[in-house]
Specification:
100 residues; mainly alpha; two-stranded antiparallel ribbon; 2 strands; 50% helix
Length: 100
């Protein structure tokens, strides 16, 4: 995200290797060499993204702790679970496809 697509505060710049593939799937291209300063900035941006994702995952797990405990207890007993039972324990309705 940071290096190839410029999705960070460094700006919308691609800092990664420009790679192309031939018909056999082999890649070729010129590697882009970053200065130590820019590589350090890239590393910090990547760390920031990972830390944000970790905090979000932790928040979601904590918010759903009771449901996750119910599901894990059921799995200890039955080892596998069908979708309907999972949805019943999770309290979520079955996903449907609207064909409009």
């Amino acid at each position: 995200m940071v290096v190839d697509f410029g999705m960070s505060s460094l700006g919308p710049v691609a800092l990664g290797q420009m790679v192309e593939s031939n018909v056999w799937g082999y890649s070729f291209g010129d590697p882009i060499k970053l200065s130590e300063d820019m590589q350090s900035k890239v590393d910090l941006e990547i760390k920031k993204k990972i830390d944000e994702a970790y905090k979000l995952a932790e928040k979601v797990l904590k918010q759903n702790r009771k449901v996750l405990d119910k599901i894990s207890l059921k799995l200890v007993l039955v080892e596998t679970m069908e979708q309907e039972i999972f949805e019943e324990l999770a309290g979520k309705p079955k996903a449907t496809f609207d064909e409009k």
